Amino acid sequence: MAHEYTTWAFKQNLPTAMKFVLVALADRADHDGHCWPSARDIASMTGQTERSVYNQIDALIELGLITKKARRRSSGYKASNGYNLHIGISREAHDEPRSPETVSPERPSGERRSPENDDNSYLNDVHININPPSEALSEPSVEPSGKTRAKGFLREFEKEFWPICVRKVAKGSAEKAFVRVRQAGTELQTILDGMRRHAAAATVTEEQFIPHPATWLNQQRWKDEGKAAPEPEKPMDLTGQPAWKAEIASAHGEGALSWVLDAERDGETVVAPTKFKADWIRSRYQPQLLRHGIKHVEHRGNQ
């Protein structure tokens, strides 16, 4: 755009619609005053119809401010007309150009225009789109902040949350749930602390009763009161116990020791104080008994 042509166009004493068309042509002119915009572009820039644009151009040609030259493409088809602006020509204030429009446009106040009151003082109230949409410069796209934040939340999920989850199932659903609760404002540390408490409590819970990570997030389970991780069981004190009793207790737990505590060994036989205990020991602990050479389990008396 050659700014001297635009300045020259604004200084012309012309009816408003005609001046807008001249300014639009000047805005598109090169340094030699040549331009070739389409009537559609000029109409879009000035807010007029294409028919009105053609009328204004004819009037500008009649005034000697521009000349028009038909153009054709190399294929032979008609192209948009070319225009040459004659910057040496000027319409002074004493000239009274007539608008090609049959009805003069009204001022914003409703007063009809005439050469006497046409001072163009209300031009500033009309906005001309100097740069048509076809040539508007595109701003570089900026990724929405919401997408950027979501990517950050997914990194948190992958690096910090997922590794400490108890049941690593339905990862896709867990990712979506994690992003939702983070976007809702829940602090990362709050979620991580809650999952650690949940993981500690889950060590004594059957797997089928442990919620999936997505369920845990959707139900806001981080708000549950934390349960302290169970203390590790103290090793049984098997000091002084015979090897066969110690093995039964190690294999079946501390409760098993109570069943054999008052039983005594006599060679290849274990003697229990009651028939019920003898039957229990025989049915439950036979593998351990056989490893220690015990083949029989009996009971004392008639109990």
State the helix count.
Answer: 12
Alpha-beta classification: mainly alpha
Under CATH, the topology of the largest domain can be stated as Arc Repressor Mutant, subunit A
Question: How is the largest sheet built, in terms of strand order?
Answer: 1-3-2
Order of helices and strands: HHEHHEEHHHHHHEEHHE
The percentage helix is 40-55%
Number of domains: 3
The CATH superfamily name of the largest domain is Winged helix-like DNA-binding domain superfamily/Winged helix DNA-binding domain
- N→C terminal distance: 116 Å
Number of strands: 6
- Integer average pLDDT: 79
What key attributes describe this structure?
303 residues, mainly alpha, Arc Repressor Mutant, subunit A, 3 domains, 3-stranded antiparallel beta sheet, 3-stranded mixed beta sheet, 9% strand, WH-like_DNA-bd_sf, Helix-turn-helix domain-containing protein
